[in-house]
Amino acid sequence: MGCRAKNTTGTLVRVALNQEGRLVIGRDAPGRGAWFCRLAGTELAQPGCLEQAAKRRAFSRALRREVPAQEVEALLARARERARMGWATSPPVLVPQVPVPGA
Ligand SMILES: [Zn+2]
Hints:
The structure is a single chain. By secondary structure, this protein is of the alpha+beta class. A three-stranded antiparallel beta sheet has the order 2-1-3. The chain is 35% helix and 14% strand. It has one domain (9-86): Hypothetical Cytosolic Protein, Chain: A (2-Layer Sandwich). It binds zinc ion. Zinc ion (ZN) binds next to β3.
């Protein structure tokens, strides 16, 4: 679900609503779950995928329970923060190619 991208479970994360009404991430989290694209290298979902689900009110539909808006926001905030950190560290460091004298 989420962005509706065709995907395999290996690249998805499962989000479930626990007894306390908190959204938790985990394949074994109890309760009905919803699947989202995994943010590469993390256990979090991609912010864009969560945003699309939030816009379509897909959380409550998929989890068959009313999901508190602040829980969706908190999950999104974590994902955005992690994605931002990822961008800060992932671009390859460009090493200038210095011509070797005499080559
Ligand atoms: Zn997605």
